[in-house]
């Protein structure tokens, strides 16, 4: 019998409880995998609390990202075989020791990339890929601000943006996290707890502001993020770890310099198989070239998912965290 974290009521980390679950044979178009590692992401918290709604309602198994080995394939599956090493970033139900996944969501993991690394990088890495290469095309002329620089996406984005030639500014909440971010591509990192990050950004850019702000924090950084932008700059709000931005007034974009704003999601950017493969292959290439390294800073047994969520929400973690079945 497979083991899984099952959410039967919305709430705090205490609702994450391990249960034995019966796993059916993979259906048509499905692949069954034995999972080696599962990625922990802030979006998992949003589903646990009810900020985002599970498509299946209650109860549900949380999680989006994982990697493992194919143990069975359903009818009509030709892309994968038993024994293949695979990973995914957008398939609900990741918090399990074994599971079935729609084959269209899976990707083969290249040789030279471990399954643990794959589980640590698929959602975060593909998020960094679309933000830096599609939402706003970053290059040598770009100056950017990335909030939560010492987070899982932040570590990858800092290195990748630096490899693209950008000037990379980040924010973090402690000297330890500042030092970590500086070691992952950032040119400057601002302590948002002690410094006014708007003033520091203006100082660092000679008063001009940045071309783009990547903001996964939400309520606590809005509308200050807009004040960091140069005229006609882009605010990319791709998360809300501090809470959602409420009652967004589009007129504020005109007041602050004819700004642009977007609310992108990975799941839109990889909605087709060609788009998914292109995004993943771009990530695999940058990791295999050693331009971006994936550091796994914390691991927890799957049974302790509640403790992992607590540490994530209280900002005790940095970089990437894995759950191990």
Major sheet attributes: 7 strands, mixed
Number-wise, the strands total: 15
Task: Give unreliable regions as ranges.
Answer: none
Number of self-contained structural domains: 2
CATH homologous superfamily heading of the largest domain? Medium-chain alcohol dehydrogenases, catalytic domain
What's the alpha carbon Rg, rounded to whole Å?
20 Å
What would the average pLDDT be, to the nearest integer?
96
Shape: globular
Architecture per CATH nomenclature, i.e. the level-2 architecture of the largest domain: Alpha-Beta Complex
Give the terminus-to-terminus CA distance: 13 Å
Helix and strand content put the structural class at alpha/beta
Estimate the strand proportion.
Answer: 25-35%
Name the helicity range.
Answer: 25-40%
CATH class of the largest domain, anyone?
Alpha Beta
Provide the succession of SSEs.
EEEHEEEEHEHEHEHEHEHEHHEHE
Q: If helices are DSSP runs of H or I spanning 4 or more residues, what is the number of helices? A: 10
Say what the CATH topology of the largest domain is: Quinone Oxidoreductase, Chain A, domain 1
